[in-house]
Amino acid sequence: SLLGVPPESVLRVSAKEGINVDQILEAIVTRVPPPKDLDDAPLRALVFDSHYDSYKGVIAYIRVVEGSFKSNDVLRMFSTREDMRPVEIGIFAPSMKPVDALGSGEVGYIATGFKTVHECRVGDTITRASQPASEPLPGYLTPKPMVFAGIYPVEADDYPELRDSLEKLQLNDASLTYQPETSQALGFGFRAGFLGLFHMEIIQERIEREYDLDVLFTAPSVEYQVLLIDNEIIPVDSPAELPDESKIVEVREPWMTIEIITPTDYYGAIMEIVTKRRGIFKQQEYPAPHRVQLDFEIPLSEIIVDFFDDLKSRTKGYASLDYQFLEYRVDELQKLEILVNGEPVDALATIVHKKDAYHKGQRLITKLKELIPRQLFDVAVQASAGGRIISRANVKATRKDVLAKCYGGDITRKKKLLEKQKKGKKRLKMVGNVEIPQDAFMAVLKLNEE
Q1: How far apart are CA 302 and CA 221, in angstroms?
Q2: Which fold has domain 147-218?
Q3: What does DSSP say about strands 215-217 and 379-385: parallel, antiparallel, or unpaired?
Q4: Which residue has the higher pLDDT, 438 or 247?
Q5: Over the chain, what is the mean pLDDT?
Q6: Are 146 and 135 in contact (CB under 8 A)?
Q7: Is there a contact between 262 and 292 (Cβ–Cβ < 8 Å)?
Q8: What phi and psi values does residue 392 have, to the nearest 5 degrees?
Q9: CATH superfamily of 335-445
């Protein structure tokens, strides 16, 4: 069960010593099915990768499964129904080498001339426009994102560059989805969907490294299913979009099965970090001496923030983690909102379990009190969950010393000046807005578990 294949089928090979390398070539011939000779069948070619070229547009990497085509044929994308005449077709030898035709079983490329990513998706089927195939190649499903996060440029002027970089990343990563989003605290950005936490980290790294952009990722969230009182089920991937509690019958969250393989010395530490995050122990196996495989069920929302980092630090890097989707389950979930001066801050809202709401709310308020700059009036910072305020702190006002010019004199003069200042602050509080600085928001995201 550890390897997923019979042990006797594993080849014992050492490239360094040159041992049994010939067995790999034999295994490729015997185990990998050869391509079928189906040049006369209707054309069906699978797009398995792509990249963008400034002169030739989207270049699709394809494998021709059935049929054949020439460089002057008009081709059609199956899912988008877009037609195109290739700018160029060719093979990899190993660099791109133009050819006049491609047949069944061959791997090559098509310079489509498309200028947008939506017209040519990885996993789509290409057929001939004049003699289209009746159905696409089996197995292609639009990837369903599991983890969602907001992406915002640190500098507002970088918004167009961020949009262009996401478009180009989506070219060869069909599982990346995004749509424009506006936040009161962070300005204009995008709500992006990812297959998992590792996928999100890869996208963040590529945006920063390949496109030299300084971006801020909000705390990741998952897609919940919300059953309303009119029996309608709606997906919610942003805490700010969760409907009012009076309209909700139940909230369902995604659960995962996780498999942790670790040395037996860290058994207790792993049990502690998983059960602390609402995990349910299922079974254990000992695939090798001093190694244990632990299987758990755990909510996805509990493992997307810092679970992997915590696991690695507790096991000195020895533990490995594998997880896959199990099902949606009903639980006692509610929205934790942060209100600053009575106004909710959408970027700080989270969906939490009912039993965790009070402690998380208190920690957020304590941190925000330190980070929000003082104004000329008192600012109330509150955490709200379940329709009531569960924690509150005041950021004290900065005060001008209006009595500095009074050298002695009657006390009524001083009282008059203080009353005038008090009325001014009250009037200012009614019309004043509190702007949360971005560094305060980033610091809240880095709030560690206590």
Answers
A1: 10
A2: Alpha-Beta Plaits (3.30.70)
A3: unpaired
A4: 247
A5: 82
A6: no
A7: yes
A8: -150, 145
A9: Elongation factor 4, C-terminal domain (3.30.70.2570)
CA–CA separation, 36 and 28 (whole Å): 16
Q: Two tokens at 384?
A: 């709200």
State pTM to two decimals: 0.66
For 343, phi and psi rounded to 5 degrees?
-105, 130
| Residue pLDDT, tens place only, 101-132 | 998 889 999 998 887 766 777 788 999 888 88
CA dist., res. 335 & res. 238, Å (int) = 10
CATH of domain 44-128: 2.40.30.10
The 10s digit of each residue's pLDDT in 296-329 is 999 988 887 778 888 888 888 888 888 888 888 8
CATH 3.30.70.240 is right for the domain spanning 226-331: yes
Q: Where in the chain is the domain with CATH 3.30.70.240?
A: 226-331
The count of residues in the chain is 450
In the chain, CATH 3.30.70.870 covers: 147-218
- Residue-wise pLDDT for 393-442, tens only, equals 887 777 666 666 776 677 787 787 777 767 665 655 444 456 665 556 65
| Range from 126-135, 278-287, 374-383 carrying the lowest mean pLDDT | 374-383
Q: Which residue has the tokens 């409907």?
A: 243
